[in-house]
Amino acid sequence: MDPAVDRRGRRLTSTQSAAPAVALAATALVPLGFLAVFFGWPVGAIVARGLVVDGALDLSGFTDVLGTDRTWRVIGQTLAQSVTGTALAVLLGLPGAYVLYRCRFRGRVAVRALVTVPFVLPTVVVGVAFRSLLVDDGPLGFLGADGTFAAIVAALVFFNYAVVVRTVGTMWSHLDPRAEQAARSLGASPWQAFRAVTLPALGPAITSAASLVFLFCATSFGTVLVLGGPSYGTVETEIWLQTTQFLDLRAAAVLSTVQLLVVTVSLGLSAWSRRRRETALRVQADVAADRALGRTDLPAVVVTAVVVAVLLLTPLTSLVVGSLRIGAGWGFDNYANLATGGTRGALEVSVWEAALNSVRIAVDATVI
Q1: Residue 186 DSSP label
Q2: 3-state class of 57 per DSSP?
Q3: In a 3-state reduction of DSSP, which class is residue 207?
Q4: Rounded mean pLDDT of the chain?
Q5: Residue pLDDT, tens place only, 290-344
Q6: How is residue 187 annotated by DSSP?
Q7: Among 208, 318, 221, 323, which residue's Cα sits nearest to residue 272?
Q8: Which residues does 215 contact at the CB level (< 8 Å), separation at least 6?
Q9: Which of 301, 292, 290, 300 is nearest to 174 (CA)?
Q10: What pLDDT is stored for residue 348 in this prediction?
Q11: In terms of DSSP H, where are the helices of the chain?
């Protein structure tokens, strides 16, 4: 075997030859160690709670928990809200992705930012906003939707609409329009060209977005807890109940294991779809360009406008209005109370101190 040499042709010793491999291994140990301690260990502990009893493997916990009607009712409700929320988010998000990423109009950047706002709002705050709209004396109380399945699904779509719009829209903005134009020149209608040419090309992006939305819907906690009430439960809320109310850690561990499988499958599907999307983007010719809105875009524009105005702006407006309401009047007292522990003294720190703590934690987590 020929001895190793460097770029200048100088012979390297065995120690020098092995140095890059040792450095690479040492560098890899840091993230692997972090994952082992902060991910593998907690997950292993959860699984052990459900599978190990007195130091021995015991699968009876799964049969005991999964054999009850309550568990399957919770699983059924989780799947129902996740599938419905995902389907609606995709159906409503596709027109939004087209309008905001394929068409050119004044104010597009602002609308994109507005669409993204719900995704970063606290779930409990959004749940309270939706409930303030849907209670009997609320603006939408006549719908009778308070505490219903429809209210939960609406809130889930509110959160995840941006995921579909941004994921699908990004790929749509890079699609070569010449294939669709060729289909139109051969006599295809706009809908036929979209169904036969554009929709298959967007398949990886749609699958990736749908898998992420399904994951977010299935693991939703605060929204379901606030809007669903005691009559409606999901796997996430059931884990919380089994832990805090019934003190049944084994049942909670079994449900956590089931949820872990769902999360793993969803993330795996999303990663697979993302790789397909990235491959598709690499092979696309960089000829796609925004175009001005036309008459044929009217259906997509109407759907997007209704979603933004009704589903997104209404809860956001409710939050702003609620922040300005002081008893029977109006004012900025609630904003002045941000520097205190609240009018009832329920907070041990001011809101500004809590916000500063959040920033510190976010910075620390980002650095790590």
Answers
A1: T
A2: strand
A3: helix
A4: 81
A5: 777 778 888 889 999 999 999 999 988 888 888 788 877 788 777 777 777 655 5
A6: T
A7: 208
A8: 262, 263, 266, 267, 270
A9: 290
A10: 67
A11: 14-35, 41-51, 60-66, 69-102, 108-116, 123-134, 149-172, 178-185, 190-193, 199-201, 203-218, 222-228, 235-244, 249-283, 298-306, 313-324, 333-336, 351-367
